[in-house]
Amino acid sequence: MNIYLYDGTFKSLLDLINKLIELKIKPLDIKDKENFKPNILDNMIELELDMEFDISKIKVSKNIMKTIYYVYLSSDEHKELIIYYFLLNALKYQDKIFTMRNLKCVNSALKLAKRVSNECHKLKGFVRFKEINNHVLYAEIAPDSDVLELLSYHFAKRLANEYWLIKDVKRNMYSIYNTQKYYIVSGKNINLKDIEIKEEEKEVENLWMTFFKTIGIEARKNKRCQMNFMPKKYWKYIIEMEDAYEKGNNR
Amino acid sequence: MTLEEKLKILADSAKYDASCSSSGSKRINSGGIGNASYSGICHSFASDGRCISLLKILLTNCCIFDCKYCINRKTNNVKRAIFTPEEICTITMNFYRRNYIEGLFLSSGIIKSPDYTMELLIKTIKMLRYKYHFHGYIHCKAIPGASEHLLKELGSLVDRLSANIELPTENGLKLLAPNKEENKVTKIMSYVKENRKSSFAPAGQSTQMIIGATKETDLDIMNKSEKLYKSYDLKRVFYSSYIPVNKDKLLPSLTTPPLIREHRLYEADWLLRFYGFKTSDLLDEENPNFNILMDPKANWALRHLDEFPKEINQVSYYDLLKVPGIGIKSAKRIIACRKNFKITFEDLKKMGVVIKRAKYFISCNNKYFMNREYFKKSFIEANLILEDNVKIENKKEQLSLFS
Predict the structure, then answer these.
(1) Tell me, what DSSP letter sits at residue B197?
(2) What is the DSSP string of B103-164?
(3) Which helix (H) or strand (E) holds B52?
(4) Model confidence pLDDT, tens digit, residues A214-224
(5) How do residues A135-157 score in pLDDT, each as one tens digit?
(6) Is the pTM of this model over 0.80?
(7) Nearest C-alpha of chain B: how many angstroms from A49?
(8) What value does the mean pLDDT take over residues B374-395?
(9) A6 touches chain B (CB under 8 A)
(10) ipTM of the complex
């Protein structure tokens, strides 16, 4: 059996899987060619893919497509294969698929989709902007899943009249919003050397720190609980947890 | 006084209010900044593990009332401060733009009169909505005794408008909060209930009771909650462990707040709202308090063991909900999935059922998880308590799940 390659985009993945299903080919694996280091025994195949593939050609409901998209955003190393088998079954069973958790691919897909939507929801709260030059808001994140697009959609509505930038440090991707639209751009094509953080920014941050420290009730102190809800992996980019991040614990 | 000093005083005096939820509103951003998220968003978690969603502050901690349990009572010698509306707007906007918060929670001590205080609250929130074009979430506490036209105005500006009942019985209130009258609080609740719509307190109302400051039993408390949910369509009743901030001969001298009791009350509260339980199922005059060692649902199940084990592939939704370890989501999944296939113990794990609790109370395709001889109260009880105690010791309580 063979390993099939796609170019990392959602469209190309769906196009590939759609073709494989049409040709009744069962792949050994499907991989993003940008990030895949092949083994000497692997036999890799690139099918000719259509850059303008129309996703609506795939006859499944919105909910199924949304689930597939969320799985695609996850960082699971088998996500492509999970999507392949999930879609294969979804074409057959349509929305009934959501109640077929006894199938391994369905259970895995629903779990991964849930993980991505959970992380996205958490980050909607944990993203911290700083004001930089020209009143632009700037935030850095390093999520497990690729939630930059989902977050951008959220903040485009919420901070509609602002100019903002979110950087996914892990993937070196930026989302840039200009009060009208956001654009997702690779860090390779962007130069942000002249970021300046103003003095006043420190004042707002201090005010926030004062609030954050004051609002906890000493008699109910429970740092373990705090950490369960705000896991360590996010501390680096949450202003009020910077101290804890540097110390390595929140005690 | 600097802005920072003020914030410190007025956040400190607001922190005993348990409510921080930002859910239930669909307010959209119309040409300004901010919108509401229907499910609510937690932005941070404080050192006590409680979620921080809203900028929770008092407009002022000056107060003409003298409620015994309250840190801001008239006779206490504490530093007093008052925010100007402009200051509140500045802080809110600065925090919101940086995504520190989901919105504002504004309450206040009572200065001069209830109406005067309400007018100040209204002025502040009007400024935030119209001058700063803020469309984020706002939860405001109404002042008991304020005039109806002010309630009307405030409600049309905020997402949630509520008043705290404070104590489960009128007697408790008379004893500890002589200036407050229950009917003034319930008047606000009725008003909000009658007038609630998309342009008036769309996220509804909640209230709060202090636990352990007076002698009421859990039965008194749950009866009160049940009545409040029924009469006023409340979204939530919050329970707040009494924390001794004042010394008074009328108050108990606790050293630690009754956190586990509070936790049990929240569990029971969930059972009332989503699981089809009634207070009378859980407590009675003979057992007026919850078992500290075991959660109310497991406790109930053990007392009704004749209704178990329940067959996963057969029983109704509400019967599934009665099983310890099965929640709303997993019950719904079971109902949907069993149309397609016979569910086994293995499958239940995938559906989010807490097997180590549920296994004693269920059967799958008429199979019990072990020899049926062990289906006995004493055996199950011992196992469940053992497990819970390990949990309590290791983790204390996950209190902020509920606030």
Answers:
(1) B
(2) EEEEE----S-HHHHHHHHHHHHHIIIIIS-B-SEEEEEPPTT--HHHHHHHHTT-SEEE--
(3) strand B51-52
(4) 999 999 999 99
(5) 999 999 999 999 999 999 999 99
(6) yes
(7) 36
(8) 78
(9) no
(10) 0.94
Q: What is the DSSP string of B343-372?
A: --HHHHHHTT--HHHHGGGEEBTTB-SS-G
In tens, the pLDDT along B268-277 reads 999 999 999 9
A210 → closest Cβ in B8, B259, B400: B8
Alpha carbons B241 and B223: distance in angstroms, whole number: 18
Under the banding of pLDDT at 50, 70 and 90, the label for residue B400 is: very low
Q: Which helix (H) or strand (E) holds B299?
A: helix B296-303
Residue A201 pLDDT > 70:
yes
Per the listing, tokens 């958790």 go with A101
A226 close to B (CB below 8 A): yes
- Using CA atoms, how far apart are residues B152 and B200, in angstroms rounded to an integer? 8
Q: Which residue has the tokens 């003095």?
A: A199
The tokens 């941070």 sit on which residue?
B44
Residue A161 CA: distances (Å) to CA of A157, A198, B15, B103? 9, 21, 32, 17
Query: Which residues of chain B lie closer than 8 angstroms to A218, CB-CB?
Result: 48
Is residue A195 pLDDT above 90, yes or no? no
- Give A137 to chain B, closest Cα distance, Å: 7
What pLDDT is attached to residue B385?
Answer: 85
Q: Which residues of B touch A159 (CB under 8 A)?
A: 33, 97
The phi-psi region of residue B257 (left if phi > 0; otherwise alpha if psi is between -120 and 50; otherwise beta) is beta
Encode A8-48 in three state secondary structure: CCHHHHHHHHHHHHHCCCCCCEEEECCCCCCCCCCCEECCC
Q: How confident is the model at residue B394 (pLDDT cuts 50, 70, 90)?
A: low
pLDDT, tens digit, 9 for 90 and up, residues B105-119: 999 999 999 999 999
Closest CA to B46 of A200, A109, A52, A212: A212
- CB distance B343 to B313 below 8 Å: yes
Tell me the shortest Cα–Cα distance from A124 to chain B, in angstroms: 7
B29: nearest CB among A98, A102, A157: A157
The radius of gyration of chain A's CA atoms, rounded to the nearest angstrom, is 21
Of B49, B241, B333, the CB nearest to A222: B49
Q: A224 in contact with B at a CB cutoff of 8 Å?
A: yes
> Which amino acid type is present at position A209?
M
Q: Which amino acid is at B196?
A: R
Whole-number Cα distances in Å, B375 to B31, B71, B205, B364: 63, 51, 44, 15
Whole-angstrom CA distances from A66 to A20, A73, A109, A175 are: 21, 11, 11, 21
Residue A219 near chain B (CB below 8 Å):
yes
**Which residues make beta-bridge pairs with B362?**
B310
Of residues A135, A141, A155, A140, the one with CA closest to residue A201: A135
- Residues B86 and B93: their CA atoms lie apart, in Å, by 11
Per the prediction, chain A carries an average pLDDT of: 93
Residue A250 has what pLDDT? 84
Under 8 Å between Cβ of B177 and B64: no
